[in-house]
């Protein structure tokens, strides 16, 4: 039995690796998506363009402006002499923020009164606006503490000392890149598996496969195991790139990571086999794969927290294997999670994998007979 399955596995791997189009699908899109997601999909802001309307023109106000211009987050575009240009600059998106310093700024600082500083932010993208305000508030807070230390004045009753556990620099790549391991592994595995049986049907060789001594379960294993091997290999390449190229710390062991990875790839393999069993042509298989991939990514917590979703949608995420693997891969990378602490994620993913494979086997036998 296993010799026949091994022969079919070798045949499937050769069919994928010898086909130039298949090789491009395996290498090109994952590499492009890794670069795009790794560098472009970030919650950090860099070089935010801003303008300055400094009505005070004192040493203190210039020091505040220099703190904004010298940070990695902001980039000063222009200095204004009047307020008339402010609407034009924001409407045309030349700047995302205008720093307006009141003419009484220094005087109020020396008499220990609140010194007015206005921030005008482009609010068309509310998420970006909130991030800009957060960065600006940090700079102003640092300026206040430095001024009180150098010039005296009443100290604030409480000082917030912020520390981020697991991600001290608050680098969004540390959150995004481990998620790409799950995302690209699912994409590659699902596409390879979904096209297996559909390709045989379209080429007219599926009937030849059925007249061989192989049973349906052997054909199913021979079709599914190559995709599993390719998925694990693809994930390994992305994990290496995450650690050595993007500098994401891998604080945990590879054992809990790869245990979860195998369960995840098995669950996705079951879905791919179901799609492949139902599809008659490769085009139908591709459409079926993308029909599953888009909702699964949205409902996985890859970009938006599951806790923020409506209750009924949160219930739907419980049948999504990518939801559990994202917790595993991010936990191992950032928290150093162990196999014991991740059992609550392994169990449902193993159950989903079992159900998917059973359903794929039933659908495959039904289509055969």
Can you tell me about this structure?
By secondary structure, this protein is of the alpha/beta class. The chain has 2 domains: 2-41 and 171-368, no CATH class; 48-151, abc type-2 transporter like domain (abc type-2 transporter like fold), CATH 3.40.1710.10. Helices cover 65% and strands 6% of the residues. It has 14 helices and 4 strands. The chain has helices at residues 2-18, 20-39, 59-69, 86-91, 105-110, 126-151, 173-203, 206-210, 216-244, 254-278, 282-298, 311-316, 321-335, 343-368; strands at 48-54, 74-79, 97-101, 117-121. Helix 1 (2-18) packs across helix 9 (216-244). The longest helix has 31 residues, at 173-203. It is elongated. The protein starts with a helix and ends with a helix. The relative contact order is 0.11.
Task: Output mean pLDDT.
Answer: 82
Q: Would you count the extended β strands for me?
A: 4
- What is the number of independent domains? 2
Class computed from helices, strands and strand pairing: alpha/beta
Global Rg: 28 Å
Low confidence ranges: none
Helix content: 55-70%
Task: Report the principal-axis shape.
Answer: elongated
Number of contiguous helices: 14
**Largest beta sheet: what is the strand line-up?**
2-1-3-4
H-E string = HHEHEHEHEHHHHHHHHH
Distance between the termini: 21 Å
- How much of the sequence lies in strands comes to 5-15%
